[in-house]
Amino acid sequence: MKYFGSSGIRGIVNRDITPDFVLRVGQAVGTLNSSVVVGWDPRVSHPMLYNALVAGLHSTGCSVATAGMLPTPTLAYAARKFDCGVMLTASHNPAEYNGVKLWNPDGTAYDTLQQGKIEELIDSAEFRRATWRDTGWRVDVLDAVQEHVEHILGHTSSSSLSVVVDCGCGAASVITPYLLREMGCRVFTLNSQPDGHFPARNPEPVEENLEQLKRSVKTLGADLGIAHDGDADRMMAVDNLGRFVSGDKLLALFGRSEAKKSMVAPVDTSLAVEDAIKPAVLIYSRVGDVYVAEAMKRHGCEFGGEASGSWIFPRISYCPDGIYAAAHLVELLTEHGGFDGLLEEIPTYPTLRGSLRCGNPAGCMECVRRRVEEWFSGFDVVGMSTLDGVRISMSGGWVLIRPSGTEPKIRITVEARSLEPGELYQRAEALVRECIRT
Ligand code: MG
Question: Which residues are known to be catalytic?
Fold first, then answer.
């Protein structure tokens, strides 16, 4: 059975993510590895799931190092000393969710092949069984946060900017404010007491959840604001005027400074990124940070990311690292002398997004694939990709039609550099409607 989604195993606690299920995950991971480091974000369900996971790991003879409550990228960095890292987190999902993410020693998430092996083992229940004397050792890892901080400081210059950090009561609370202070910044903290009920705001760092941060940056006259999701693999920013900085602008900003030859971003990325990084090339991947990291390794790219707030810098790790991204953004702004003029250089092209309900997304997408070229023949089509859904590129814009990963819907995204966005959207919507009918 398929248990992994695009970002690990995730679901509602005691409905999808039960102790007996997590016990089996532990047995499967332990069957394939001899030593594992385990960490968790502040969600209130972590003690129950941690104990189930560790019982499963030890039953196979796997040794367990416990790193405690910490961000996902910190755990992924700690995994370099073990066979595998296991993070109990549901990332940016609401408090009732939890989940499991698995990490390789080089900081990459388990890829589809590795996920398949875990899923097969969970289903077959052919787990390794240790004898009474071989259930493995257990130790506490006390220095994971400090080692991650030192690793980042080794790649970052100092700064005296003033920064408001909104950890959303998530795992970043134990690291980002301290790291930025060590860099020399003046740091104001918001929601930086870990609390698995996420009382201050929804953990997802999207604009509507960051009103408090936007106001605080303005009121305090800070140079920027930083926001994390629940497990701090993601980072978003607010400028010195309290305006939310879009993910595409951050992608363009990081891409321009990092990518000498090439970078990776998902198929729904703005053309502004492609324009900003020239002469470097933008390589497209499927939507999901695991796919971005896979493509980066395959093509040897210097940088990759997703507009939702995942930024991957191979000099640190192949795990999206919201903490290093915060430090690096501070560094870039220090070099440039603040946000002034920096974001205005990056264009914003009109974008339209929408979705249509569909009972048979697979059948509909098959029809879209078959008919899209004929349907857009009146436009100046320069390419088509079926990497993730169907993306059709024209000289003045693009259309992406893809099934939702979580709902029975087909999503449509349109961006137009020189074409009329409404016209493109209507064309795409009419094609999807036609395909839903047939
Ligand atoms: Mg996350």
Answer: 91
